[in-house]
From TrEMBL:
One of its GO terms (molecular function) is ligase activity. It comes from Corallococcus aberystwythensis. This is Long-chain fatty acid--CoA ligase. InterPro entries: ANL_N_sf. Keywords: Ligase.
């Protein structure tokens, strides 16, 4: 099918009323993804810079298309701000030189095409240089921002990397894998040609928080990565050379490298700001004109508190899986002076290549600044499947968004509701935390040897509302002894130390009881049933049941000191 990309870009800038459904070209792009990608690639090439080497459906040279094409522009590829150092910029030319030298060093250490390179960096210069060095060598990268040692060990064991890129002070997080650490001293001699990937080559193995369990490496093919980047860069965010994109507080593992690829492919600048710094002073966010700004509820509340005026923003977007508090959003829009600024819902899954759901980004009505409308992204084939997980198509107007082809892809989790020609984000399949899975098993395993705990279980609770958000409550059983006054702090400290702050539950509930066990393991189904029926609260206050709990505790202590098998607590 023929696609007029110039006209498409004009329509996206103007916006469209979602009541009439997706525009005709959008619907046709679902039916002809290859033709649509070819049209975007042709329009992307004619921008006064060297032509891209990638050819949709044939070959992909990420290093050339992301960096080499833009070296002559003398523009920053990455910009960041720190409280002490202030603004720091990393230009395309400097990034090219640093990444080329690192690739040369790594090649001498044995990195070859197809090898798995795990990048243990936070968002910053080191991450970009290592990521691009991997792409130049044809490696398969994995982003793994530093976490607690137990979480790191679980993910490294699942990944089995060939090499690891990390800074020296992160060595304690790599216990058992130290011999895989790459040395990077910046002394390599840049030279050789960058690698070209085939469409089906796996360019990345990503730990997506949208997958259950979240420590499962998900393959990202070269084709999905490149098509996602060009679609997001041109259409989702409308980026051009020198434009700035920022998404503070957006979870790294869900959104990177997709946001980086979309930005660099278009010769734009990725602006990184730490949320902890913005909470103290959001002024740096207001100092540069932003083509697109991603806003989380936490950032929204910070800007409300500081009474910031966002005159420098041309388009803002939110993740539709975040809590939908329309009143808070509209108060923020009014206070920041964004009533006439385009806004959109954008759901990004880096393991799928980028955005999977988007909405019109134009301003069509005053009441549409915050909404639930979404459409599957242009250029991706998709279907709605029945939520019963049978694999059949959805017989009703509510189904699970499934990208096609779905072979070897994790199952979808987003529920879409179709009302005439309009689609709405309708929540998730199963309990999730703002769309992301909560690693309950990792949390309970990390708490197993806390001396005052007799067992733990995590119970998800739906908060209701438009998007069926969930809270995760940790049930902490303390046996016959009440929890110490510092119990909650000790649990939080243990989780943060071994796993990281992202693993903290929403609430902790203590019960001076023993949990039911099956073959030695805490029975999560029993715990949930007892919690939801109120039985745990009643038993915790019942004098007779407390006496039985104390007796059971004495029996368990006696069996443990005598060396006998400890009896499994009954119901």
């Amino acid at each position: 099918m023929p696609f007029d990309v110039k006209d498409i870009l004009r329509q996206l800038e103007a916006g469209f009323a979602p009541e009439s459904g997706a525009p005709k070209w959008w619907q046709e792009s679902w039916e002809d993804p290859d033709g649509f990608a070819a049209a975007l690639a042709e329009a992307h090439a004619g921008r006064g810079v060297p032509p891209p080497k990638s050819r949709p459906g044939q070959q992909y040279d990420f290093f050339h298309d992301l960096i080499v094409r833009h070296v002559a522009l003398e523009r920053p590829a990455f910009r960041t701000h720190a409280r002490i150092q202030g603004w720091q910029a990393l230009g395309y030319r400097t990034l090219h030189d640093l990444a080329s030298r690192r690739a040369s060093e790594w090649a001498d250490q044995g990195v070859e095409p197809g090898m798995k390179v795990c990048l243990v960096h936070g968002v910053g210069q080191e991450l970009l240089v290592s990521l691009l060095a991997t792409l130049k060598l044809g490696g398969c990268f994995t982003l793994l921002p530093p976490m607690g040692p137990r979480a790191m060990a679980t993910r490294l064991a699942a990944l089995k990397p060939d090499f690891i890129a990390a800074e020296p002070h992160q060595l304690p997080l790599l216990k058992g894998h130290e011999q895989l650490l790459l040395k990077s001293q910046g002394r390599g001699a840049p030279g050789f040609t960058s690698h070209t990937y085939k469409p089906t080559d796996v360019v990345g193995l990503l730990f997506s928080p949208l997958v259950d369990p979240p420590h499962t490496p998900v393959p990202l093919t070269a084709e999905n990565a490149w098509k996602g980047a060009i679609g997001d860069g041109m259409l989702t965010f409308g980026l051009g050379q020198g434009d700035l994109l920022a998404a503070p507080d957006f979870p790294v593992l869900q959104h990177l490298p997709a946001l980086l690829f979309a930005t660099l492919l278009r010769g734009a600048t990725y602006l990184h700001l730490e949320m902890a710094d913005l909470a103290l002073n959001p002024a740096p966010l207001l100092e540069h004109p932003l083509r697109a700004l991603g806003v989380t509820p936490k950032l929204r509340d910070v800007l409300l508190r500081h009474r910031a005026s966002l005159r420098n923003v041309q388009h803002w977007f939110r993740n539709p899986e975040e809590p939908y508090d329309a009143q808070a959003w509209r108060t923020w829009v009014k206070q920041c002076g964004l009533q006439s600024v385009p806004s959109s819902n954008i759901l990004i899954d880096a393991s799928a290549g980028g955005a999977v759901l988007v909405s019109s980004r134009g301003v069509t009505e005053a009441s549409t600044d915050v909404h639930t409308d979404v459409f599957p992204v242009p250029g991706r084939a998709w279907t709605l499947k029945d939520p019963n997980e049978s694999g059949q198509g959805a017989p009703s107007d509510v189904g699970v968004l499934t990208l096609l082809p779905d072979k070897d892809r994790p199952p979808g989790h987003v529920l879409l509701a179709r009302i005439r020609q309009r689609y709405h984000y309708a929540g998730t399949q199963g309990f999730r935390h703002d769309g992301r899975t909560y690693s309950a098993k990792e949390v309970t395993a990390a708490l197993e040897d806390l001396p005052f705990l007799a067992g733990t279980s995590v119970v998800p609770v739906s908060t209701g509302g438009l998007a069926s958000h969930s809270r995760f409550i940790l049930l902490a059983f303390t046996g016959a002894t009440p929890a110490p006054s510092s119990g909650e702090q000790e649990i939080i400290r243990r989780i943060e130390m071994l796993l990281g702050g992202d693993f903290l539950p929403d609430r902790i509930e203590f019960f001076p009881l023993f949990p039911h066990r099956v073959e030695g393991a805490v029975d999560d189904a029993w715990c949930a049933s007892q919690f939801f029926t109120g039985a745990l609260h009643r038993k915790a206050k019942d004098p007779m049941f407390q006496a039985l709990t104390a007796l059971r505790g004495r029996l368990l202590e006696s069996a443990a000191t005598s060396g006998e098998d400890v009896p499994s607590p009954s119901r």
